[in-house]
Amino acid sequence: MAQYSTELDGVLVALADPTRRDVVRRLGRGPSSVGDLAGGFPMTLPSFMKHLRVLETTGLISTAKHGRVRTCTLRPGRLALVDDWLAEQRRIWEGRTDRLEQLLTDPTEERR
């Protein structure tokens, strides 16, 4: 866990912004040009590009320029960092709630 903490921190920070989460959601349907993506957001193109740079820096998306069109593509493997972390947290908390349930339902368990 500790070895990829910096990467996980970057991905979580990137996903903390609703605009960037919406971009990730849209790219989940397939690659899209920057112009098409930016059209749905009430902000200037330079402001929108800052969001794309954050996503690209953290590895959540990749971009490629073909002529005058820059196309963005989601890199779902980076989302696996968050998924792995959440699965680990879920496993820990499920173990704790299972032990609590056992203590509450089995009075002999308390004596051990």
Automatic annotation (TrEMBL):
SUPFAM superfamilies: Winged helix' DNA-binding domain. Pfam families: HTH_20. One of its GO terms (molecular function) is DNA-binding transcription factor activity. Signal peptide: none annotated. Residues 1-94 form the HTH arsR-type domain. PANTHER family: SLL0088 PROTEIN, TRANSCRIPTIONAL REGULATORY PROTEIN. This is Helix-turn-helix transcriptional regulator. It comes from Pseudonocardia petroleophila.
